[in-house]
Every structure is written in C-alpha cells, then in structure tokens.
Write a structure and sequence with these properties.
By secondary structure, this protein is mainly α. The chain has four helices and three strands, in the order H-E-E-E-H-H-H.
C-alpha cells in the first residue's frame, strides 16, 4: 500500500484554507479548492463573505468537534441539578438542560452535514 492510502482521510482537504483573488486554496496554496468566479450563483456583494466562511470551515469544524463534549457534559450536569434541587430551582435547571441539549443536537447535525453524513 502506498503512504497516501495508509493515511486516514478526514473527508476534506486539511486546513487552514486561504482566500486569494476570489478562490479558496489549501494551506500551502498548491491546490485550488474552488473558484467563486466560475461556480458562484451568489450575489457578487456576498461572494467575499461566502469565501471567508468557506476558508474558515476546517477551523470551525475542529472547534465544534472540540466543544461538543463539553456541551454534553454541561447538559448532563444541568439534568442532574434539575433532578436533585428544590422544586423552585427545578424549572430553571430543566430549561438550561434543554437549551444545552438543543445546542448539542444542532452541533451533531452540523458535524454530520460537514462530513457528508445524514444527521
């Protein structure tokens, strides 16, 4: 097997990505990932913002993967507090737990979408 085949793929070109003249390139600018001029259907006024978001995608993905376990732990702690506190505090902790559960659910769905999986 070649070295390239032995290296696990992340599903996308590793970041960081760079925006240069309406195109997004890989970290060492040896590979053009996409060109907004040839494939953009967006309003020209938002192309730069779209490119900046696309270039940040690997960093956003990495940050979300790192943050989700903490959100899950906080949600579990909030559910525990909701079940062990006084009746007057239970509602507040339940709301917090539900809010954190929603954040975790949205994060998992976004990761699945970014990796080409169905959430």
């Amino acid at each position: 097997m070649s070295e390239k085949q032995d290296t696990p793929r992340t599903g996308h070109t590793p970041g960081p990505w760079k925006v240069i003249h309406e195109s997004v390139f890989n970290r060492d600018v040896s590979e053009k990932l996409f060109d907004a001029r040839c494939c953009s259907i967006a309003d020209p006024e938002v192309v730069d913002a779209n490119l900046a978001l696309a270039a940040a995608a690997p960093d956003l993905l990495r940050a979300l993967e790192a943050a989700l376990p903490s959100v899950r732990r906080e949600a579990n702690a909030a559910w525990k507090s909701a079940n062990t506190t006084s009746v007057s505090e239970r509602f507040r902790w339940t709301q917090e737990a539900e809010r954190l559960d929603k954040i975790a659910e949205d994060g998992r769905a976004a990761l699945a979408k970014a990796k080409g999986n169905t959430p």
